[in-house]
Specification:
There is one protein chain. By secondary structure, the protein is α/β, with parallel strands linked by helices. It folds into 2 domains: 126 residues, NAD(P)-binding Rossmann-like Domain (Rossmann fold), CATH 3.40.50; 110 residues, Dihydrodipicolinate Reductase, domain 2 (2-Layer Sandwich), CATH 3.30.360. 35% of the residues lie in helices and 22% in strands. It has 8 helices and 13 strands. Strands 12-11-7-10-9-8-13 form a 7-stranded mixed beta sheet, with helices on one face. The protein has a 6-stranded parallel beta sheet with strand order 3-2-1-4-5-6, sandwiched between helices. A hairpin with a 7-residue loop joins strand 8 and strand 9. Helix 4 runs parallel beside helix 5, helix 5 runs antiparallel to helix 8 and helix 6 packs across helix 8. The longest helix has 17 residues. It starts with a strand and ends with a strand.
Amino acid sequence: MKIGMIDKYLNEWHADHLPDWLREEAGDVEEIYAWEMMPPPEEDRIPGPRWAKEHNVTYCETEEEVIEKSDVLIVLAPNYPEIHEELADKALRSGKPTYVDKTFAPDPAAARRLIEKAKAHGTPMFSSSALRFSEGLADFDKEGIVNLSMRGPGLLGIYCIHHIEPIIMLMGHEAEDVMFLGTEECPGYVIRFSDGRFATSHHLDFKRPFSIHVKYKDGKPAGYMDDCKDFYPGFVTALVKFFRTKEIPVDPEETVAVIAVREAIMKAKDMPGEWVKVVK
Protein backbone atom coordinates (compact mmCIF):
# COMPACT_ATOMS: atom_id res chain seq x y z
CA MET A 1 0.00 0.00 0.00
CA LYS A 2 1.29 3.43 -0.98
CA ILE A 3 -0.21 6.25 1.07
CA GLY A 4 -0.28 9.93 0.17
CA MET A 5 -0.63 12.75 2.70
CA ILE A 6 -1.71 16.25 1.67
CA ASP A 7 -1.60 19.00 4.28
CA LYS A 8 -1.58 22.73 4.80
CA TYR A 9 1.71 22.17 6.61
CA LEU A 10 2.97 18.78 7.76
CA ASN A 11 4.46 19.50 11.18
CA GLU A 12 1.14 19.17 13.04
CA TRP A 13 -0.11 16.57 15.52
CA HIS A 14 -2.12 14.38 13.16
CA ALA A 15 0.54 14.17 10.46
CA ASP A 16 3.25 13.66 13.08
CA HIS A 17 1.59 10.46 14.31
CA LEU A 18 -0.19 8.93 11.32
CA PRO A 19 2.83 7.48 9.46
CA ASP A 20 3.86 5.21 12.33
CA TRP A 21 0.26 4.32 13.22
CA LEU A 22 -0.53 3.38 9.62
CA ARG A 23 2.63 1.30 9.20
CA GLU A 24 1.86 -0.61 12.37
CA GLU A 25 -1.81 -1.20 11.56
CA ALA A 26 -1.51 -2.00 7.85
CA GLY A 27 1.71 -4.01 7.94
CA ASP A 28 2.22 -3.64 4.18
CA VAL A 29 2.87 0.07 3.70
CA GLU A 30 5.44 0.27 0.90
CA GLU A 31 5.84 4.03 0.90
CA ILE A 32 4.30 7.19 2.30
CA TYR A 33 4.38 10.33 0.20
CA ALA A 34 3.62 13.82 1.50
CA TRP A 35 3.19 17.41 0.32
CA GLU A 36 2.41 20.61 2.15
CA MET A 37 0.69 23.69 0.77
CA MET A 38 2.91 26.09 2.70
CA PRO A 39 5.73 26.07 5.26
CA PRO A 40 4.51 26.18 8.87
CA PRO A 41 4.06 29.75 10.12
CA GLU A 42 5.38 29.10 13.62
CA GLU A 43 9.14 29.29 14.19
CA ASP A 44 9.14 26.15 16.36
CA ARG A 45 7.71 23.97 13.56
CA ILE A 46 9.82 22.42 10.82
CA PRO A 47 9.29 22.63 7.04
CA GLY A 48 7.96 19.72 5.02
CA PRO A 49 11.16 18.31 3.48
CA ARG A 50 12.87 18.10 6.87
CA TRP A 51 9.70 16.73 8.48
CA ALA A 52 9.56 14.01 5.83
CA LYS A 53 13.11 12.87 6.54
CA GLU A 54 12.42 12.68 10.27
CA HIS A 55 9.31 10.54 9.65
CA ASN A 56 10.77 8.29 6.94
CA VAL A 57 8.39 9.78 4.39
CA THR A 58 9.08 10.78 0.77
CA TYR A 59 8.45 14.48 0.27
CA CYS A 60 6.94 15.50 -3.06
CA GLU A 61 7.30 18.91 -4.65
CA THR A 62 3.74 18.95 -5.94
CA GLU A 63 0.33 17.73 -4.85
CA GLU A 64 -0.07 16.06 -8.23
CA GLU A 65 3.02 13.93 -7.61
CA VAL A 66 1.61 12.66 -4.30
CA ILE A 67 -1.69 11.72 -5.94
CA GLU A 68 -0.02 10.02 -8.91
CA LYS A 69 2.31 7.88 -6.81
CA SER A 70 -0.16 6.88 -4.08
CA ASP A 71 -2.82 4.18 -3.93
CA VAL A 72 -4.83 5.94 -1.21
CA LEU A 73 -4.93 9.53 0.05
CA ILE A 74 -5.30 11.47 3.28
CA VAL A 75 -6.17 15.17 3.19
CA LEU A 76 -5.23 16.68 6.54
CA ALA A 77 -5.24 20.33 7.70
CA PRO A 78 -7.39 19.25 10.68
CA ASN A 79 -7.97 22.72 12.09
CA TYR A 80 -8.57 24.45 8.77
CA PRO A 81 -11.92 23.29 7.31
CA GLU A 82 -12.16 26.49 5.29
CA ILE A 83 -9.40 25.26 2.93
CA HIS A 84 -10.56 21.65 2.54
CA GLU A 85 -12.38 22.30 -0.73
CA GLU A 86 -9.19 23.65 -2.26
CA LEU A 87 -6.87 21.18 -0.59
CA ALA A 88 -8.98 18.10 -1.40
CA ASP A 89 -10.02 19.08 -4.91
CA LYS A 90 -7.49 17.04 -6.88
CA ALA A 91 -7.65 14.08 -4.49
CA LEU A 92 -11.43 13.88 -4.83
CA ARG A 93 -11.08 13.86 -8.62
CA SER A 94 -8.56 11.00 -8.51
CA GLY A 95 -10.87 8.01 -7.98
CA LYS A 96 -8.53 6.84 -5.20
CA PRO A 97 -9.89 6.18 -1.67
CA THR A 98 -9.56 9.46 0.20
CA TYR A 99 -9.97 10.39 3.84
CA VAL A 100 -10.54 14.08 4.62
CA ASP A 101 -9.60 14.93 8.19
CA LYS A 102 -11.88 16.62 10.67
CA THR A 103 -13.23 19.27 10.67
CA PHE A 104 -14.58 18.24 7.24
CA ALA A 105 -16.02 21.57 6.09
CA PRO A 106 -16.88 25.03 7.46
CA ASP A 107 -20.57 24.69 6.61
CA PRO A 108 -23.03 22.08 5.28
CA ALA A 109 -23.09 23.56 1.76
CA ALA A 110 -19.34 23.02 1.45
CA ALA A 111 -19.71 19.53 2.94
CA ARG A 112 -22.26 18.60 0.27
CA ARG A 113 -20.06 20.00 -2.49
CA LEU A 114 -17.15 17.83 -1.32
CA ILE A 115 -19.37 14.74 -1.10
CA GLU A 116 -20.89 15.34 -4.54
CA LYS A 117 -17.48 15.93 -6.11
CA ALA A 118 -16.23 12.61 -4.75
CA LYS A 119 -19.33 10.83 -6.05
CA ALA A 120 -19.04 12.46 -9.48
CA HIS A 121 -15.49 11.19 -9.89
CA GLY A 122 -16.03 7.75 -8.38
CA THR A 123 -13.80 8.55 -5.42
CA PRO A 124 -14.60 6.65 -2.19
CA MET A 125 -14.36 9.30 0.52
CA PHE A 126 -15.24 9.82 4.16
CA SER A 127 -14.54 12.13 7.06
CA SER A 128 -15.04 11.73 10.79
CA SER A 129 -13.90 12.69 14.22
CA ALA A 130 -11.81 9.90 15.73
CA LEU A 131 -14.27 9.86 18.67
CA ARG A 132 -16.70 7.87 16.52
CA PHE A 133 -14.30 4.95 16.80
CA SER A 134 -13.94 4.92 20.59
CA GLU A 135 -13.70 1.43 22.01
CA GLY A 136 -17.19 0.16 22.82
CA LEU A 137 -19.13 3.09 21.36
CA ALA A 138 -20.50 1.00 18.48
CA ASP A 139 -21.97 -1.39 21.11
CA PHE A 140 -24.41 1.24 22.39
CA ASP A 141 -27.97 0.43 21.40
CA LYS A 142 -29.29 3.31 19.28
CA GLU A 143 -32.93 2.30 19.75
CA GLY A 144 -34.93 4.13 22.39
CA ILE A 145 -32.45 6.88 23.25
CA VAL A 146 -34.28 9.87 24.72
CA ASN A 147 -31.35 11.89 26.06
CA LEU A 148 -27.59 11.91 25.70
CA SER A 149 -25.12 13.83 27.85
CA MET A 150 -21.59 14.42 26.56
CA ARG A 151 -18.61 15.86 28.43
CA GLY A 152 -15.09 16.46 27.28
CA PRO A 153 -12.20 18.86 26.79
CA GLY A 154 -11.31 21.40 24.17
CA LEU A 155 -11.83 24.81 22.66
CA LEU A 156 -15.25 25.18 21.08
CA GLY A 157 -14.30 25.82 17.45
CA ILE A 158 -11.73 23.02 17.19
CA TYR A 159 -13.10 20.39 19.57
CA CYS A 160 -16.87 20.59 19.22
CA ILE A 161 -16.56 18.18 16.27
CA HIS A 162 -15.47 15.50 18.77
CA HIS A 163 -18.53 16.20 20.93
CA ILE A 164 -21.02 16.31 18.05
CA GLU A 165 -19.86 13.21 16.15
CA PRO A 166 -20.84 10.62 18.80
CA ILE A 167 -24.15 12.43 19.37
CA ILE A 168 -25.12 12.23 15.69
CA MET A 169 -23.76 8.69 15.44
CA LEU A 170 -26.01 7.48 18.27
CA MET A 171 -29.06 9.74 17.90
CA GLY A 172 -29.30 10.18 14.13
CA HIS A 173 -28.95 13.08 11.74
CA GLU A 174 -32.31 14.81 12.34
CA ALA A 175 -30.97 17.51 14.65
CA GLU A 176 -33.34 20.49 14.47
CA ASP A 177 -31.88 23.34 16.51
CA VAL A 178 -29.30 24.19 19.17
CA MET A 179 -29.04 26.50 22.15
CA PHE A 180 -25.79 27.78 23.66
CA LEU A 181 -25.83 27.80 27.47
CA GLY A 182 -22.19 28.01 28.45
CA THR A 183 -19.50 30.63 28.74
CA GLU A 184 -16.33 31.41 26.83
CA GLU A 185 -14.35 29.46 29.45
CA CYS A 186 -16.81 26.54 29.65
CA PRO A 187 -18.89 26.23 26.47
CA GLY A 188 -22.09 24.21 26.70
CA TYR A 189 -25.03 23.62 24.41
CA VAL A 190 -28.24 21.69 23.88
CA ILE A 191 -29.09 19.94 20.61
CA ARG A 192 -32.80 19.36 20.02
CA PHE A 193 -33.91 16.70 17.55
CA SER A 194 -36.99 16.76 15.34
CA ASP A 195 -38.78 14.15 17.48
CA GLY A 196 -38.25 16.08 20.71
CA ARG A 197 -35.18 14.23 21.99
CA PHE A 198 -32.27 16.21 23.44
CA ALA A 199 -28.50 15.94 23.71
CA THR A 200 -26.33 18.18 25.88
CA SER A 201 -22.60 18.74 25.85
CA HIS A 202 -20.08 20.70 27.90
CA HIS A 203 -16.47 21.54 27.11
CA LEU A 204 -14.33 21.31 30.24
CA ASP A 205 -10.56 21.46 30.72
CA PHE A 206 -8.05 19.02 29.25
CA LYS A 207 -7.89 16.97 32.46
CA ARG A 208 -11.42 15.79 31.70
CA PRO A 209 -11.75 12.75 29.40
CA PHE A 210 -14.53 12.47 26.86
CA SER A 211 -17.54 10.78 28.44
CA ILE A 212 -21.01 9.79 27.24
CA HIS A 213 -24.13 8.99 29.27
CA VAL A 214 -27.23 7.74 27.44
CA LYS A 215 -30.78 7.62 28.83
CA TYR A 216 -33.31 5.22 27.26
CA LYS A 217 -37.11 5.14 27.36
CA ASP A 218 -39.35 2.51 28.98
CA GLY A 219 -37.04 1.87 31.91
CA LYS A 220 -34.28 0.39 29.80
CA PRO A 221 -30.94 0.60 31.68
CA ALA A 222 -28.87 3.67 30.88
CA GLY A 223 -25.61 3.42 28.96
CA TYR A 224 -22.38 4.89 30.28
CA MET A 225 -18.90 5.49 28.94
CA ASP A 226 -17.01 7.49 31.55
CA ASP A 227 -13.78 7.59 29.56
CA CYS A 228 -13.85 7.25 25.78
CA LYS A 229 -10.75 5.17 25.15
CA ASP A 230 -8.59 4.11 22.22
CA PHE A 231 -10.40 6.27 19.71
CA TYR A 232 -7.25 6.89 17.67
CA PRO A 233 -6.35 3.16 17.41
CA GLY A 234 -9.96 2.48 16.48
CA PHE A 235 -9.88 5.24 13.89
CA VAL A 236 -6.66 3.98 12.28
CA THR A 237 -8.10 0.45 12.11
CA ALA A 238 -11.21 1.82 10.38
CA LEU A 239 -9.09 3.94 8.05
CA VAL A 240 -6.96 1.03 6.89
CA LYS A 241 -10.06 -1.11 6.39
CA PHE A 242 -11.58 1.66 4.26
CA PHE A 243 -8.42 1.87 2.17
CA ARG A 244 -8.51 -1.90 1.56
CA THR A 245 -12.24 -2.35 0.93
CA LYS A 246 -13.29 1.10 -0.36
CA GLU A 247 -16.38 0.68 1.81
CA ILE A 248 -17.35 4.05 3.31
CA PRO A 249 -17.74 3.63 7.11
CA VAL A 250 -19.72 6.82 7.80
CA ASP A 251 -23.08 7.77 6.28
CA PRO A 252 -22.51 11.03 4.35
CA GLU A 253 -25.81 12.37 5.71
CA GLU A 254 -24.38 12.05 9.22
CA THR A 255 -21.27 13.93 8.11
CA VAL A 256 -23.40 16.78 6.75
CA ALA A 257 -25.47 16.80 9.94
CA VAL A 258 -22.34 17.05 12.11
CA ILE A 259 -21.15 20.06 10.13
CA ALA A 260 -24.61 21.66 10.20
CA VAL A 261 -24.84 21.27 13.99
CA ARG A 262 -21.35 22.71 14.38
CA GLU A 263 -22.28 25.72 12.25
CA ALA A 264 -25.42 26.30 14.34
CA ILE A 265 -23.43 26.07 17.59
CA MET A 266 -20.90 28.63 16.36
CA LYS A 267 -23.80 31.00 15.58
CA ALA A 268 -25.60 30.24 18.85
CA LYS A 269 -22.60 31.15 21.01
CA ASP A 270 -23.25 34.81 20.15
CA MET A 271 -26.88 34.58 21.37
CA PRO A 272 -26.93 32.41 24.52
CA GLY A 273 -30.35 31.10 25.57
CA GLU A 274 -31.88 31.35 22.09
CA TRP A 275 -32.66 28.50 19.74
CA VAL A 276 -30.74 28.53 16.46
CA LYS A 277 -31.99 26.34 13.62
CA VAL A 278 -29.76 23.63 12.17
CA VAL A 279 -29.73 24.24 8.42
CA LYS A 280 -28.46 21.43 6.22
